[in-house]
Amino acid sequence: MSDHRYDGIIFDVDGTLWDSTYVVEKAWNKALHDSGYSNRITADTLKGLFGLPMLEIIENIIPESAMEEREAFLKVCSGYEFEFLEAEAGVVYPGLEDTLKELSTDHPLFIVSNCQQGYIDLFSRKTGLGHYFTEGICPGDTDKLKADNIRIIIDRYGLKNPVYVGDTDMDHVACIKAKVPFCFAAYGFGDTKAPDHIIDKVPDLIKVCNG
Description:
By secondary structure, this protein is an alpha/beta fold. The protein folds into two domains: about 10-20 and about 90-210, HAD superfamily/HAD-like (Rossmann fold); about 20-85, DNA polymerase, domain 1. About 45% of the residues lie in helices and about 15% in strands. The chain has helices spanning about 20-35, 45-50, 55-60, 65-85, 95-105, 120-125, 140, 145-155, 170-180, 205-210; strands spanning about 10, 20, 90, 110, 135, 160-165, 180-185, 195-200. A six-stranded parallel β-sheet has the order 5-4-1-6-7-8. A two-stranded antiparallel sheet has the order 2-3. Helix 9 (about 170-180) links the parallel strand 6 and strand 7 (about 180-185). Helix 3 crosses helix 4. The longest helix has 21 residues, at about 65-85. It is globular, with a radius of gyration of 17 Å.
């Protein structure tokens, strides 16, 4: 891989590989209703929260709740989220599969997300794209957040010069902590300042990674 700029590519999921917020909105609002909360959530609000650890997202949605309530709600909303996404998958971004297919011929691909356990597997299964990725991990697998999980992937696979692809400032901060370059997916949910690379659409990643 010496002729390529990076020797591994690590991806975020939401806002980078697909957009599931319109499905998750329905699932979480049902969970809120069935749990007795009057609070409601929109897809646009979720786009501003995705990337945070799950319990922090819940704290933003039901700020009056105690930690025990948030933990209980996490189980409820995760169950509904998986149920709804099994019935109606999120929407992958244009050009994703062709880009993954091309990049995977010369780079190992990974997923590191702050999502709940099982979400990466669900994404892989519902999109049929899981075979392009060597591994995916989240806090539910390791009890660690994004920066540490990026380092786990780097160490586990002996990567010397990987890049992380994400769509929020939180992703950028995690990359700084993990000491890896950050490629900002400007088509996603968030914003950031001074990333190492910016892509306006998924296929732009090919030029970034191949140099």
